[in-house]
Write a structure and sequence with these properties.
371 residues, alpha/beta, Single alpha-helices involved in coiled-coils or other helix-helix interfaces, Rossmann fold, 3 domains, 7 strands, 11% strand, globular
Length: 371
């Protein structure tokens, strides 16, 4: 039988036949997509967001933080108005910065200390600065999966934020989010950073107490971390001091204590202690919190606490100016084509990067002068 006859035959009986497929539904939920589009278009007023924050409507509070983090101009107008409304209700929390070498157990430590605080009636906000995706600039959201118990506690709020390439892995809007958290009634705020480096000074400039987490058994403990970070720390905790590692942690703690004696006394007049703790067993966790309380009382009595807060506000002003000028330059409609032109000139060797930058700045100043 000819092949054509086989394929044309209606009655040809074979197991090899193509069945008519069932029509598949769209992979997109059109109703959900439309609802999402509407919600994105609908923005509340700053006063409405403030009301939600003060009454701690968790949904509105999260939306307000997203608004602050947004780079859209229309969002920033409402966000800055909201921050101004929240300022009278801010400043009444203990701001704790937590950093440490990779693998020091920062997230596990935060959950252990957070559970200790919430069980004592404290309201805790954790701003976990996540590493950003190099492609999408989005947050990896690892901390919510690691802090399973704390993330569902009614007195705790965990907000992972993408670092988005900010200095020291600190999210650009963290300071504004702290103000929102304080207006919402959180009396304790943790700022967890990506890792350790000289740029962690950005965290130090927004918190009251800077805690450095270290671990033993990672080689030379004193060489595993930069001196600049140790000098900024108000206390150093050797984590994972449990089981067979307990003795090594105590030895590491002694080494750190000896090293701290070689550093000059900080401006606060406080001598930073070195402690051991275990996030798994809870040993030493309450002692660390007591140490933080002692430092806060100490710095308030000698006036350093208010002096540091004032300095932080001044730093916020300078950082805001830098940020605003950056946005004005790169978002200017007339600058964008000049940037592409400058890139082409550098690629072809017509001009150096320094010449191109200088030319762009001059062009921008001329554009502004005309207006």
């Amino acid at each position: 039988m000819d092949v054509n006859e086989i394929t044309d035959s209606e009655n040809f009986d074979s197991a090899l036949r193509v069945q008519e497929g069932v029509e598949q539904p769209s992979s997109l939920n059109e109703r959900a997509l439309e609802s999402f589009r509407k919600s994105k278009k609908h923005l509340l007023s700053a006063a409405e967001y403030l009301d939600g924050i003060r009454n701690f409507n968790r949904s509105l509070f999260s939306q307000a933080i997203t608004l602050v983090e947004s780079s859209l101009p229309e969002h920033q107008i409402i966000a800055q108005e909201l921050i101004a409304l929240c300022l009278p209700y801010s400043g009444n929390s203990i701001r704790l910065g937590i950093t440490g070498v990779p693998g020091a157990g920062k997230s596990t430590f935060i959950e252990a200390l957070g559970n200790h605080l919430t069980s004592a009636g404290h309201r805790l906000a954790v701003l976990a600065i996540d590493p950003s995706s190099s492609r999408t600039k989005g947050s990896i959201l690892g901390d919510k999966t690691r802090m399973e118990g704390l993330s569902v506690h009614p007195n705790a709020f965990i907000r992972p934020s993408p670092s988005a390439g900010s200095l020291g892995g600190v999210a650009r809007k963290t300071r504004e989010i702290i103000i929102l958290c304080e207006a919402a009634g959180f009396d304790t705020i943790f700022v967890e950073t990506v890792g350790v480096g000289q740029s962690e000074i950005a965290v130090h400039s927004m918190v009251d107490f800077f805690l450095l987490l270290m671990i033993s058994g990672a080689g030379d403990e004193l060489q595993g971390i930069k001196r600049g970070i140790m000098e900024m720390a108000d206390a150093i905790a050797i984590n994972k001091a449990d089981g067979d590692n307990k003795t090594r942690a105590q030895i590491a703690c002694t080494q750190v204590k000896n090293a701290l004696h070689l550093f000059p006394l900080p401006d606060s007049g406080w001598s930073p202690p070195a402690l051991t703790c275990s996030s798994l067993t809870g040993d030493g966790i309450s002692l660390i919190w007591d140490t933080i309380g002692e430092y806060i009382n100490f710095s308030k009595k000698n006036g350093y606490f208010e002096k540091k807060r004032l300095h932080q506000n001044q730093q916020i002003m300078f950082d805001t100016i830098d940020s605003h000028l950056h946005d004005l330059f790169y978002r200017h409609a007339e600058i964008k084509p000049l940037l592409h032109q400058a890139e082409a000139e550098i690629k072809s060797g017509i001009s150096t990067p320094y010449q191109a930058a200088g030319k762009l700045i001059l062009n921008y100043l001329q554009i502004i002068k005309k207006k």
